[in-house]
């Protein structure tokens, strides 16, 4: 089936990329611009992104995700959980051609959209329909170097889903907001129980983008510890 992509004449008005985008995406800047067009058209039409977000696609979404490349090692195998509109996975792949990226998304309509966009952009990204806690997903993608997520779940729950997909020494990179430090302190015990080390907060894109991205980093240091039945039910998937 041909990809359902926006025709050139039907593209909704999208702000031109900031000059820093050329530095971040290099030769893949045209593909990043095309991705922005997808977000502003079919992404809005299919409910993957709100119509009010089209005016701030670059700063709030695309560049905000792309600068996360600073904390991802060379040649890493990256699993992006709850990818939705491909954030942060697609901008990360555009900014770092050396990465091996898979997008994990449970909703069929979003999987269809992601597949069409990736085909149009000619990116070597895989898409997996499913949830991180499902056996099929874990068996297929475990041993990843990096697991990314953006606005998926509180850190305690996210660690329980993400850390089993990582190799020992692998890293969870969670794109968070201004309350990241409070979340790290609140969920420290649950993160360790899930097999993670001490979570840290990093700022990506400082001196490059107007508003740096706040990310929480958690290294997988051990296997998850079995919990007691009936305890901390709010952390169950």
TrEMBL record:
GO molecular function, one term: rRNA (guanine-N7-)-methyltransferase activity
Enzyme nomenclature, EC number: 2.1.1.-
UniProt cross-references to Pfam families, sorted A to Z: GidB
Localization, UniProt: Cytoplasm
The UniProt record lists the keyword Signal: no
Positions of S-adenosyl-L-methionine binding: 82, 87, 132-133, 150
Record keyword rRNA processing present: yes
A Gene Ontology term for the protein's cellular component: cytosol
CDD domains named among the record's database cross-references: AdoMet_MTases (cd02440)
Keyword field: Cytoplasm, Methyltransferase, rRNA processing, S-adenosyl-L-methionine, Transferase
Predominant location: cytoplasm
InterPro entries to which the protein is assigned, alphabetical: rRNA_ssu_MeTfrase_G, SAM-dependent_MTases_sf
Similarity field: Belongs to the methyltransferase superfamily. RNA methyltransferase RsmG family.
Entries under HAMAP family matching the protein: 16SrRNA_methyltr_G
Purpose: Specifically methylates the N7 position of a guanine in 16S rRNA.
Protein name, per record: Ribosomal RNA small subunit methyltransferase G
Record lineage: Bacteria, Bacillati, Actinomycetota, Actinomycetes, Pseudonocardiales
Encoding gene, per UniProt annotation: gidB
């Amino acid at each position: 089936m041909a990809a359902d992509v926006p025709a050139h004449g039907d593209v909704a008005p999208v702000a031109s990329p900031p000059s820093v985008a050329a530095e971040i995406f290099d030769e893949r800047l045209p593909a990043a611009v095309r991705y922005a067009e997808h977000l502003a058209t079919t992404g809005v039409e299919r409910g993957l992104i709100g119509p009010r977000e089209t005016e701030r696609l670059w700063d709030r979404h695309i560049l905000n995700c792309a600068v996360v490349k600073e904390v991802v090692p060379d040649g890493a195998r990256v699993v992006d959980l709850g990818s939705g509109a491909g954030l942060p996975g697609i901008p990360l792949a555009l900014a770092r051609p050396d990465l091996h990226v898979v997008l994990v998304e449970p909703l069929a309509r979003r999987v269809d959209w992601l597949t069409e966009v990736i085909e149009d952009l000619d990116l070597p990204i895989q898409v997996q329909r499913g949830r991180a806690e499902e056996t099929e997903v874990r068996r297929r993608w475990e041993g990843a170097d990096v697991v990314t997520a953006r606005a998926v779940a509180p850190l305690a729950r996210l660690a329980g889903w993400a850390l089993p997909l990582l190799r020992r020494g692998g890293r969870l990179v969670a794109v968070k907001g201004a309350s990241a430090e409070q979340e790290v302190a609140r969920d420290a015990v649950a993160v360790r129980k899930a097999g993670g080390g001490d979570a840290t907060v990093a700022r990506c894109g400082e001196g490059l983008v107007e508003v740096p991205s706040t990310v929480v980093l958690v290294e997988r240091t051990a296997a998850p510890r079995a919990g007691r039945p009936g305890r901390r039910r709010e952390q169950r998937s």
